Amino acid sequence: MFLEHGRVLAFAHRGGAYHPEIEGLENTLAAFRHAAALGYDYLETDVHVTRDGVLLAFHDEVLDRVTDRGGAIGDLDLAEIREARIGGREQVPTLAELVDAFPEARFNIDLKSERAVDALADFIAARGLWDRVLVGAFSPGRIRRFRQLTGARVPTAAHPLEILAYRLLPSARLAERLAGADFEAFQVPHRRGRLRVVTRGFVRRAHAAGLHVHVWTIDDPAEMEELLDRGVDGLFTDRTDLLKGVLVARGLWQ
Q: pTM above the 0.85 mark?
């Protein structure tokens, strides 16, 4: 199973994007190898689809921010994207390359485009990855379609409207009645503007419904400690070294 109860899940966000040893190499095989060498077995990535239908492990819609090339992922073929380099040396990996490189890892995947929905559902089915992935999206329509395509065989994270129900309503029973039960985890920021999302009440309601709470993206050890004291089930981090240190000190690193 993807979700392990009784264990704090440590997610290497884009491979640990701001670890000093790999900064500038987010979402590359080098970054994920670095995280795996530290002991991370939960890896977070994002997916887009190239013009010729290949799923890429890449966050942005365009190459411009992190590579030496430009252009939108959806307007380029894989062969063109292969010419780009992240950090001057690393290629943009396909999702297949990432999954094949880490056969023991589990992958938290964020759907970043409409075309990625069908492509990811087909990819998971073709490889039988039902228990090795958890999929989320900011778009309610996108995640609903993914759930339909996969027949609820793949665990998913709540979309923003489902999150709001559990955050604002007074009980888990009422929230479940309104939001349904089509997801296994909340993957949320600690705060959104002035609103604290991850309160003790929110965590309590989630746990009462048998749901996980995972918080992104936490790079400050004091904030990690605060959230762990609040009972969260997982933390995403760009500073894989710091999160590991906090969990080791608390006897929670596995």
A: yes
